[in-house]
Structure to design on (151 residues):
Protein backbone atom coordinates (compact mmCIF):
# COMPACT_ATOMS: atom_id res chain seq x y z
CA UNK A 1 0.00 0.00 0.00
CA UNK A 2 2.68 2.48 1.03
CA UNK A 3 4.79 1.65 -2.03
CA UNK A 4 1.77 2.18 -4.33
CA UNK A 5 1.15 5.62 -2.82
CA UNK A 6 4.86 6.41 -3.22
CA UNK A 7 4.79 5.36 -6.90
CA UNK A 8 1.68 7.44 -7.58
CA UNK A 9 3.00 10.56 -5.83
CA UNK A 10 6.35 10.21 -7.63
CA UNK A 11 4.65 10.05 -11.04
CA UNK A 12 2.32 12.96 -10.23
CA UNK A 13 5.30 14.94 -8.95
CA UNK A 14 7.14 14.22 -12.18
CA UNK A 15 4.15 15.64 -14.12
CA UNK A 16 3.99 18.72 -11.89
CA UNK A 17 7.66 19.39 -12.64
CA UNK A 18 6.87 19.30 -16.36
CA UNK A 19 8.96 16.19 -17.09
CA UNK A 20 6.05 14.23 -18.57
CA UNK A 21 5.40 10.51 -18.39
CA UNK A 22 6.00 7.66 -20.82
CA UNK A 23 3.13 5.38 -21.87
CA UNK A 24 3.82 2.74 -19.20
CA UNK A 25 3.84 5.40 -16.49
CA UNK A 26 0.58 6.91 -17.78
CA UNK A 27 -1.00 3.45 -17.67
CA UNK A 28 0.25 2.90 -14.11
CA UNK A 29 -1.23 6.24 -12.97
CA UNK A 30 -4.56 5.24 -14.53
CA UNK A 31 -4.54 1.83 -12.82
CA UNK A 32 -3.77 3.34 -9.42
CA UNK A 33 -6.43 6.05 -9.82
CA UNK A 34 -8.99 3.43 -10.84
CA UNK A 35 -8.08 1.16 -7.92
CA UNK A 36 -8.50 4.01 -5.41
CA UNK A 37 -11.44 5.82 -7.04
CA UNK A 38 -13.92 7.05 -4.45
CA UNK A 39 -17.17 5.10 -4.49
CA UNK A 40 -19.02 7.92 -2.73
CA UNK A 41 -20.01 11.19 -4.34
CA UNK A 42 -18.64 13.41 -1.58
CA UNK A 43 -16.13 15.34 -3.70
CA UNK A 44 -13.20 13.18 -2.68
CA UNK A 45 -11.10 11.98 -5.63
CA UNK A 46 -9.63 8.95 -3.84
CA UNK A 47 -10.82 6.67 -1.11
CA UNK A 48 -8.49 6.06 1.80
CA UNK A 49 -7.73 2.67 3.30
CA UNK A 50 -7.69 2.00 7.01
CA UNK A 51 -4.13 1.31 8.17
CA UNK A 52 -2.14 1.39 11.39
CA UNK A 53 1.35 2.83 10.85
CA UNK A 54 3.72 4.71 13.10
CA UNK A 55 5.28 7.83 11.61
CA UNK A 56 7.01 11.05 12.56
CA UNK A 57 5.44 14.38 11.65
CA UNK A 58 8.01 17.13 11.12
CA UNK A 59 7.58 20.80 10.46
CA UNK A 60 8.24 24.25 11.91
CA UNK A 61 8.81 23.45 15.61
CA UNK A 62 7.15 20.03 15.09
CA UNK A 63 8.84 16.65 15.51
CA UNK A 64 6.13 14.37 16.87
CA UNK A 65 5.38 10.66 16.70
CA UNK A 66 1.92 10.05 15.18
CA UNK A 67 -0.19 7.10 14.09
CA UNK A 68 -1.44 7.00 10.50
CA UNK A 69 -4.97 5.55 10.51
CA UNK A 70 -6.04 6.19 6.88
CA UNK A 71 -3.91 6.33 3.73
CA UNK A 72 -4.60 6.93 0.05
CA UNK A 73 -2.92 8.43 -3.03
CA UNK A 74 -4.23 11.90 -2.17
CA UNK A 75 -3.29 12.06 1.48
CA UNK A 76 -3.61 10.56 4.93
CA UNK A 77 -5.24 10.91 8.32
CA UNK A 78 -3.17 10.69 11.48
CA UNK A 79 -4.01 10.58 15.18
CA UNK A 80 -2.05 11.73 18.22
CA UNK A 81 -0.93 14.70 16.12
CA UNK A 82 0.06 18.21 17.19
CA UNK A 83 -1.88 21.28 16.04
CA UNK A 84 -1.42 21.78 12.29
CA UNK A 85 -3.07 24.80 10.71
CA UNK A 86 -4.96 24.54 7.43
CA UNK A 87 -2.40 25.02 4.64
CA UNK A 88 0.61 24.48 6.93
CA UNK A 89 3.25 22.32 5.24
CA UNK A 90 4.79 19.36 7.04
CA UNK A 91 6.83 16.26 6.27
CA UNK A 92 5.67 12.76 7.16
CA UNK A 93 8.47 10.23 7.75
CA UNK A 94 7.45 6.57 7.65
CA UNK A 95 9.87 3.72 8.37
CA UNK A 96 8.82 0.52 6.58
CA UNK A 97 11.28 -2.37 6.64
CA UNK A 98 14.41 -1.46 4.72
CA UNK A 99 12.90 1.80 3.39
CA UNK A 100 12.25 5.22 4.86
CA UNK A 101 9.53 7.20 3.04
CA UNK A 102 9.25 10.99 3.25
CA UNK A 103 6.12 12.70 2.00
CA UNK A 104 5.41 16.44 1.96
CA UNK A 105 1.86 17.41 2.82
CA UNK A 106 -0.29 20.32 3.88
CA UNK A 107 -2.95 20.48 6.54
CA UNK A 108 -6.53 20.20 5.26
CA UNK A 109 -8.56 19.70 8.44
CA UNK A 110 -8.12 19.25 12.18
CA UNK A 111 -10.33 17.64 14.82
CA UNK A 112 -9.92 17.51 18.57
CA UNK A 113 -8.91 13.98 19.66
CA UNK A 114 -8.62 14.09 23.44
CA UNK A 115 -5.22 15.43 24.49
CA UNK A 116 -4.13 15.94 20.88
CA UNK A 117 -5.59 16.09 17.36
CA UNK A 118 -6.73 13.98 14.44
CA UNK A 119 -5.39 15.63 11.28
CA UNK A 120 -6.17 15.28 7.57
CA UNK A 121 -3.16 15.94 5.34
CA UNK A 122 -3.04 16.31 1.55
CA UNK A 123 0.13 15.17 -0.22
CA UNK A 124 2.04 17.77 -2.22
CA UNK A 125 5.19 17.56 -4.30
CA UNK A 126 7.35 14.53 -4.93
CA UNK A 127 8.16 12.05 -2.14
CA UNK A 128 11.54 10.55 -1.30
CA UNK A 129 12.30 6.90 -0.51
CA UNK A 130 15.59 6.13 1.21
CA UNK A 131 17.06 2.65 1.34
CA UNK A 132 18.51 1.89 4.76
CA UNK A 133 21.84 0.10 4.65
CA UNK A 134 23.42 -1.70 7.59
CA UNK A 135 27.10 -0.94 7.88
CA UNK A 136 29.35 -3.94 8.30
CA UNK A 137 32.02 -4.22 10.95
CA UNK A 138 35.27 -2.49 9.97
CA UNK A 139 38.06 -4.87 9.01
CA UNK A 140 41.68 -3.83 9.24
CA UNK A 141 43.22 -3.08 5.86
CA UNK A 142 46.43 -1.68 4.35
CA UNK A 143 45.57 1.91 5.30
CA UNK A 144 45.05 0.93 8.94
CA UNK A 145 48.43 -0.84 9.01
CA UNK A 146 50.14 2.19 7.43
CA UNK A 147 48.61 4.50 10.03
CA UNK A 148 49.66 2.18 12.86
CA UNK A 149 53.23 2.02 11.50
CA UNK A 150 53.44 5.82 11.13
CA UNK A 151 52.28 6.43 14.71
Amino acid sequence: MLDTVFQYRTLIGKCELGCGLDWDEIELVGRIEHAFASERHDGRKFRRQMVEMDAVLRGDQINDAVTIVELGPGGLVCRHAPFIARGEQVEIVIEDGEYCYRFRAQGKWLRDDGDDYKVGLQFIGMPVRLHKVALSKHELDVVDRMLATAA
